[in-house]
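[Q] Does anyone have a clean structure-token version of this?
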Amino acid sequence: MGWPKDLSGKRMPFVPKTQVSVTPELTMPLPRDFAVTTAVDVLYRSSFYLDNDLDPKTLQDGYVKLNGRIWVGPRDEKWAIALAVDNLTNVDALEFATDSLVFPHAFTAFQEFQRRYRWKPATTGDAAAPPVPERRLRRFARPDARAYDRQ
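[A] Here you go.
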């Protein structure tokens, strides 16, 4: 298939038809004015293309990804200790794929992170927030950020 291609009426690359994000959170009181809070991110994405030319070989199947967090601290949220697990179900998904410039009929691909554990102490202002030390974890709070990062 050569260029130019007429892609009018086709789906845009990197954009799933459906994307849903739900984060239920539960806070339970503990003795001595402490509380424990748990949250689970449920992130669903339908299939989408990972390359600009909409090559069927770069179609990422739809998936559901779960991220979990738990943090403990005083109820006034002046500080907390937080533990987070990204990709609890260890979903195997690609972030990007494109035709290889060097090897014919081959592709270059980048995989999304696999299961990852993180913990951090938090102080006033960010005690209730999940531990988000890296830019690529912005999806933790805003799962649709990937589509904007690539434009």
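[Q] Thanks! Anything notable?
[A] The mean pLDDT is 79.
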